[in-house]
């Protein structure tokens, strides 16, 4: 059965030439109904260049963060499957296709750290160390047992997205871990897909700051996931605390 596909590319200060090549490859390889670029805080030159790529372009004059951008992009789609990919093209189009093919009825997660993955180029030692350490801790706290929670390549069905969207709060890079945690907590299958991955230079991520944010988000994601599964302990811990506003509700305000 054919399922329609929409792709979201969250971007902040992208290399527009690299992005253009990636968009062309995605169109040629995957033939999606829609490619949506969620562009944060662009200057006029960048906005104009991206607008000419044959994509749906949504811009905001400030930096929302990856999670907020992907959430807005998924909300704009009306397709059976919704996929997001880092705009630097680290996940080749054919590898994205492998993720999409494995989505099933839930969530498919691209993996750089799976034994079957093929990593071309490598992150810095600091980023690898922090990433490996985070994955080790996450496997012990969450229901989804993965090698890689943070790879910027994931696909989800429209049905699963409809259920999980109200449980996502993290606007930045920690959004990935929350998506995995909440999708698993809601009973959907989470499949890890080893992929080819090409490290792209020029990352805008601060490893140390991101590690702190990720640790906080991991604890919060575990707490919310436990509440979804009716943990009396975590319900008690939440008593008297003000509930945060979900990303989709912020978009509507």
From TrEMBL:
Keyword field: Transferase
Gene3D superfamilies (alphabetical): Spore Coat Polysaccharide Biosynthesis Protein SpsA, Chain A
Gene Ontology molecular-function annotations: transferase activity
SUPFAM superfamilies: Nucleotide-diphospho-sugar transferases
UniProt domain Glycosyltransferase 2-like: residue ranges: 7-118
GO biological process: protein N-linked glycosylation
Keyword Transferase appears in the UniProt entry: yes
Keyword Mitochondrion assigned: no
Protein name stated in the entry: Glycosyltransferase
Provenance organism: Halosegnis rubeus
Biological classification of the source: Archaea, Methanobacteriati, Methanobacteriota, Stenosarchaea group, Halobacteria
């Amino acid at each position: 059965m054919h399922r329609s596909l929409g792709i979201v590319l969250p971007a902040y200060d992208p290399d527009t030439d690299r992005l253009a090549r990636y968009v062309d490859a995605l169109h040629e390889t995957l033939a999606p109904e829609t490619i949506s670029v969620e562009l944060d805080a662009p200057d006029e030159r960048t906005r104009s260049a991206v607008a000419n790529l044959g994509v749906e372009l949504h811009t905001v004059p400030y930096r929302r963060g990856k999670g907020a951008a992907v959430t807005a992009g998924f909300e704009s789609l009306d397709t059976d499957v919704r996929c997001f990919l880092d705009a630097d093209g680290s996940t080749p189009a054919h590898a994205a296709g492998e993720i999409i093919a494995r989505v099933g009825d839930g969530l498919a997660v691209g993996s750089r750290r799976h034994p079957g993955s093929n990593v071309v180029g490598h992150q810095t030692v600091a980023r690898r160390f922090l990433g490996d350490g985070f994955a080790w801790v996450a496997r012990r706290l969450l229901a989804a047992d993965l090698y890689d929670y943070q790879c910027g390549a994931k696909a989800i069905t429209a049905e699963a997205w409809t259920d999980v969207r109200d449980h996502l709060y993290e606007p930045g890079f920690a959004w990935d871990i929350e998506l995995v945690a909440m999708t698993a907590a809601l009973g959907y299958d989470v499949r890890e897909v080893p992929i080819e991955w090409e490290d792209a230079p020029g990352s805008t991520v601060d490893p140390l700051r991101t590690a702190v944010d990720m640790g906080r988000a991991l604890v919060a994601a575990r707490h919310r996931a436990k509440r979804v599964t009716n943990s009396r302990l975590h319900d008690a811990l939440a008593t008297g605390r003000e509930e945060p506003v979900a990303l989709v509700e912020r978009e509507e305000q």
